[in-house]
From TrEMBL, chains A, B, C:
<dbReference type="InterPro" id="IPR029069">
    <property type="entry name" value="HotDog_dom_sf"/>
</dbReference>
<protein>
    <submittedName>
        <fullName>MaoC family dehydratase</fullName>
    </submittedName>
</protein>
<dbReference type="GO" id="GO:0016829">
    <property type="term" value="F:lyase activity"/>
</dbReference>
<dbReference type="Pfam" id="PF19315">
    <property type="entry name" value="MC_hydratase"/>
</dbReference>
<dbReference type="InterPro" id="IPR048274">
    <property type="entry name" value="MC_hydratase"/>
</dbReference>
<dbReference type="InterPro" id="IPR016790">
    <property type="entry name" value="Thiol_ester_hydratase_Rv0216"/>
</dbReference>
<dbReference type="InterPro" id="IPR052342">
    <property type="entry name" value="MCH/BMMD"/>
</dbReference>
């Protein structure tokens, strides 16, 4: 008998300043682009077309930013969230450069915050994770915090450290991809005529379309990212006998659905925050709506929109985020706040 | 609130001569070949093997012709058939050159026919669509006609224009791929010994094998082609709560099943016509049979067979296309008429 | 009417010394790596990362050995096991060199054993199969034996020939991939600290994690390998109306699950034997455990472990292979005996 298997880290295993080098590096390929395209109804012109990407000034044909995010994120699961009760939030996610086929991503995380819960049975761990490519350059970075079980509830609580996190990534911190230039942007090919100036802060867009989730598809997606959380794959791992769908699956689905009304919101630059408000299961029909939260001019041809992307179970044409009591409205699955580049 | 989402075109939005440039260009990759191979039991030697393709005189390893068709077709859906009642037919489809990984396809359509239905609520739209690659060369073209709802049933009917369409693509209009030469064709590696001379006009082939359709697979296929028709993905979009399977999924399934008996029918050159006779749903077990409709010598080493490919729900060993009354027999899902190249 | 379809070979169609050249050659691509990664929770560092592979001395980034096996094996199905009652066993499987994207594999088989069953209705066929790449080099070879129906039960039995098969591939027959060197092996990136010396003969490892099988996924995998056995795809092909899951799907699932405890068991070198003990169906939750059967030093930096990999339906923490009566324990799906390279 041996005990070589990974039990995951518990709350008391984390210490402020600790750096975790996550396994396993992963090379991105054109295969990832195709599988992603089979799982999400994505049509954004830059990741869809090498020619469109080149016409936008990009030297190599990038994959969707969320492919890079899911791969980089997946690496942190075995070390950070295998014993997580819940994924509580994201902040300060920034893409530093497009990820292209051939890139190999590795992720490291630093523990930047700890707070034991008052029940003494669990605590919240904050980590800043950085994914680097084969040249050692940062591809993306982000902070997330998760609630993790304690192994030994008798252990004393660590000193509480709460990191200061930006509520929104500042416009000056957005990294514009090298060469990105929308001067020659072809709106007809991209699918919609709307540019930066056509979107107003406060505007809401009902993306209309819905997708009914299936068991195979969310598992295929989650595996593609080498995300090992048991609850997504093993029906015996949950008392209700259902597979919980990886929150990232809902993010990608909602982002893809948002094409219808935001076709020119081409490249995600940053994620300011996000909440997986309710779980999703096979059979759920996911819809999405967006709200324009802010705008910023980035270059002569590139603008940025700050968008709230809301995924719902069933369509909510009223696009209601919260009830009068301030709680999330029934049916809300995801509330994501992000910056995206769009032609001016 | 905004109205930036695409409501699709209604019958009255189409005019004779109108040219629609469809979004979004799409780069074909080796990933598409792999995903296609995971969704259909395809074994044709040229798309399966780069070595076999090279030995057949092809400079680059083409993907299945139907990959090119589905991608090119998918682009037309948001503009042509989002409000379609039914896809009524195809004609004059020709592949002008093989599509290879790295090619980026774009599609344009010209409205070539209009006929309002007598009920005044809908009409038939005929479009000729052309897919071009990144060099501006035609990859394939075809005509299809769809029945589309009117938005405003009070509007007067447009002048009826019915295009003249060839019932069959003429042999002299078939485009032989550059370099194609079956002189060194290896029948053992290809899977069957039968060549051009072994097929007789009128011969029918029961392809024997069946595949039970699943919900995930048809959705993955249809998404891969960026086909946005709601009925394929959203169980809430149909009164019966079932996802209608994209007709192209049945075409690809039947074509793959036809390997068993037509292993050397290597490259589709043209589609003369086709009808999606009945809808297919997850759980349907698809079988296929073929009938040799015509033959033609193309070069010293290449022949062409004109084939009827029939997909059925459940196996019909009698291979009955129509009842005595001339209606399609029960169980027929697809009736496709196409030209394919085969070694002489 | 024609009879061009492949009925498969029956027992009396096989003769000692007969060589069968299987259709259809198949080019391996990066797409296969991605689809495989979407179907199995695999994380082994060499196939996951081109950088890690290069740091291990490999000139090109290999795909998982099981991808090569499944493709090579799939080619034999239409000729060898289309009419098989059961796949009885494997022996002497050796990988001669890593398979990389761009390689085109073809498979030949030689009949090396025949034994009619006493009931006269079927017999056992032994074939040695060899897969070669586009340079004519051997990629892998193996022996398997299957029980095959007779077409004509009146025919006399052939002379019984039973091949002598090695119970275990000898250490000196293992082929070390050109350049393989674990001197610079990064255990943190690979996911676990355990090296050759950390594993003891007799040690058992419960791999902890489980995956609930779905209908789409096993079909996608099996199609990807161009495996045409009807029972995997056609619910009408079995009296119970269920799709039998390809045994290789369970092998790949168990191998992927074994990462947790055997993360450094990087490259499969040989398969000594294997039994598909019980059938698996959609809904089965697969777990795995391993036992170290033997060890061998291969080079200064490379060791080999001989492992038993057991897949079970439901987790068996007792890791019981057989009952006191010597029968396989309830729940055992697969018993596989293989050699794998691991850093010393």
């Amino acid at each position: 008998m041996s005990s070589k298997t990974n039990p995951g880290n518990f709350f008391e295993d984390f210490q402020i300043g600790q750096v975790i080098e996550h396994a396993v590096p992963r090379t991105v390929t054109e295969g990832d682009r195709a599988v992603y395209g089979s799982l999400y109804p994505t049509r954004f012109a830059i990741p869809s077309s090498a020619v469109f990407a080149a016409a936008s000034g990009l030297a190599v044909h990038p994959v969707e930013e969320l492919i890079a995010f899911h791969i980089a994120f997946g690496k942190t699961v075995p070390d950070v969230s295998l014993n997580a009760v819940a994924n509580l939030g994201y902040a300060e996610l920034r893409f530093h450069q497009p990820v292209v086929p051939g890139d190999t991503l590795s992720t490291k995380s630093e523990v930047i915050g700890l707070k034991q819960n008052s029940n003494g049975k669990s605590g919240v761990v904050y980590v800043r994770s950085t994914a680097t490519n084969q040249r050692g350059e940062t591809a993306l970075e982000w902070v997330r915090w998760v609630m993790v079980h304690k192994r030994d509830t008798e252990l004393p609580a660590p000193e509480t450290v709460l990191p200061e996190l930006a509520k929104v990534v500042a416009v000056e911190d957005l990294v514009i991809p090298a060469g990105l230039d929308f001067a020659a942007y072809d709106f007809a090919l991209a699918g919609e005529p709307f540019r930066y100036d056509d979107y107003a802060v406060g505007e809401k867009i009902d993306h209309v379309d819905g997708v009914t989730l299936t068991e195979s598809e969310h598992q295929q997606a989650t595996r593609l990212w080498q995300n090992t959380a048991k609850v997504h794959f093993n029906k015996e791992a949950r008392p209700d006998g259902r597979n919980l769908i990886y929150g990232g699956h809902v993010i990608s689905m909602a982002r893809a659905l948002s094409f219808n009304g935001l076709a020119n919101a081409q490249m995600i630059s940053a994620i300011n925050g996000g909440s997986h408000v309710a779980p999703a299961f096979a059979g759920t029909t996911v819809y999405a709506w967006s709200e324009v939260l802010d705008k910023a001019e980035i270059s002569d041809t590139v603008g940025a929109l700050r968008l709230r992307l809301v995924a719902t179970s069933g369509r909510d044409e009223s696009m209601t985020l919260r009830t009068d009591e301030g709680k999330y409205a029934d049916g809300v699955l995801l509330d994501l706040d992000y910056w995206v580049f769009i032609p001016r």
